[in-house]
Amino acid sequence: MDIKAYVAENENIELKDLQLKEIDADELLIRIVGTGLCHTDLGVLHQAPPTPTPIVLGHEGAGIVEKVGAAVKDFEEGDHVVVSFNYCGKCENCLNGIPSACENFFANNFGLSMEESDSKITDGDNKVARLFGQSSLATHCISNMRNTVKIDDKDVDLALLGPLACGIQTGTGTVLNKLKPGTSESIVIFGCGSVGLSAIMGAKLANCKTIIAADIHENRLELAKELGATHVINSKEEDPVESVKSITDGGAHYAVEASGVAPVVLQAIRSVRPLGTIAIVGAAGELEFHIHDELIPTSKTLVGVVEGQAIPKLFIPELISHYKAGNFPFDKLVKKYGMTELDKAIEDMESGETLKPVIQFS
Question: Domains in the chain, start-ordered, CATH in brackets?
C-alpha cells in the first residue's frame, strides 16, 4: 500500500511517498494518528547511534488497527493502540519479564544492516530501514503484536498517547519500576526535559517525601514544581550537589540523570548519600572519574536504565489510568503539530520551546 513517511538519509529528512508490503501472520497494519518526536529520532538522523539508511523515523506511535495477521488473537480492526519498543521475546531477559533488557535490543530496534533488516517499507524497488519495529513518523506502519499495546479506553485522546511508548515511559518507569523509592525517601532528577519531568511525575506517584528538580531553565523548573517537585535547583545559579545535600541533610537516596550531559552524571553521583542509587537514562558521552573515590567507600550503585525497565503492555495502560484519575498530567508536556510541520517541531524541541512534540497524521 502507498504511504507517506519521513525518511532520514545523509543527515537530511524528507516526507516521501513510500510503499508497505503485506503484513506477516504475527503483525498488524496501523493507521497512525499521532507520533511523538524524541531526541533518539534526531540521534538516528545524525547517525548517533548508527542505523542502516535510508530509514523511516518515529518510535512513539499511536493509531488505529486496520489489519491483523492470521496469528494475531488479541487485536482486531478498529482497536486503538500504542506502539512501543521492539524485543525478541525469546532471550533469557525477555523470558524473565524484562524486555527492555532484551539481548537483541539493538538489532531489533536500530537494525544491524539493510541486508538483515526485516523492514517491509520500500521506495520502489529499494528497501527502506525500519526503526524500533515501527517507523511511525508515517501515515501507516507495521508492528509486531509483541510491541503493540491495546488501549481499551477509546475516549482518551489517541494523539496524546504516542509519547508513552518511549520518553515518558522511560522517565516514569525508571522511578517506579527500577528505583522503587519509599515514601520517606528523597530523589533528585537532573534535567527537566520530557524524560526528567516524567521522572518527577513518577516520584510524585510514588509519594516520595522529597522530590528535587535540577535544571538551568527557569520555565522548566516552574513546570517541575507544578508536576510534583518539592524543591528546585537552578544549576547555573547554585552548586546542585551542595544544594541537594543541604535539602536532604547529607544527600538524596536516589538520583536520575536525564540531561544527557556527561559532567552532570558526576553531579548525580555526588548528590546521593552512602548506599544511594544513581540511574542514568540520558544519552551522555564519555566521562572520566575515580571509581574508587566516587562509588566504593560509600557503597553507591550506578545503573543504566532502558525504557524505564517497563513491560509496555502492562505499564502504558497503568499510566493512562493515572492520567484519567488526574494524577499523571503528562499532557502538559505535549504540543501537537501537523503532518507537514516536522521541521518546526524539531526547531521548537531543540530550542526548548516544546518539551514533547507530537506529529499528527490524522
Answer: 2-165+329-360 (3.90.180.10), 168-308 (3.40.50.720)
